[in-house]
Hints:
Elements: H1 2-21, H2 31-34, H3 52-55, E1 59-61, E2 70-79, E3 85-92, E4 101-106, E5 111-115, E6 118-122, H4 127-131, H5 158-190
Amino acid sequence: MFNRFLATTAVAAMVATGAMAQSTAPTPTDPTLQQPTQPDVPMVVKSKGHLASNIIGKSVLNSSGEDAENIGKVSDIVISPDDDLQAVVIGVGGFLGIGSKDVAIEYDLVDWQELEGNRYMVVETSADALKALPDFDPRAFEPMPADAAVSEPKPATADDVTKAEETVAAEKAAAEAERQERTVPQEQQETPVQ
């Protein structure tokens, strides 16, 4: 039995090294590999829709203008029970993934734009507004006991994003007013009375 095992292993090793020794170049089946691209030929997308692999990890910009800011990266997608793309989960804040927060927004809020030959996801809001949205809890999509304290996450709607923007603007205005109040008394104290 041991001899049979050694013989089988030796044959497998010879077959593997023989296969590695062969160097037949694969025939490219991708048309972009067969024909070199010309610099004057415009790049076009030949199919409608998006691949999930091109969505996950994609940067999300807050506008399509030259001053567009990166407000997060897509960390996941949510597919509805009807097999429609329901939401994108965006990681916002943090540095190199540390301290970031995941929020889900309806996929309808995403606009695809082409900038300088690249496709970007655009959500017209700020990173601060996204941070103000509720955390996305992916545990609702995993099997767990029926009495577990996890509710079904609902993606943020356009109204939710608008309310978050208003909340962030109000908080910034209140912080600025408070800063102004602290600055004025100090200036009055430092000014000599004549």
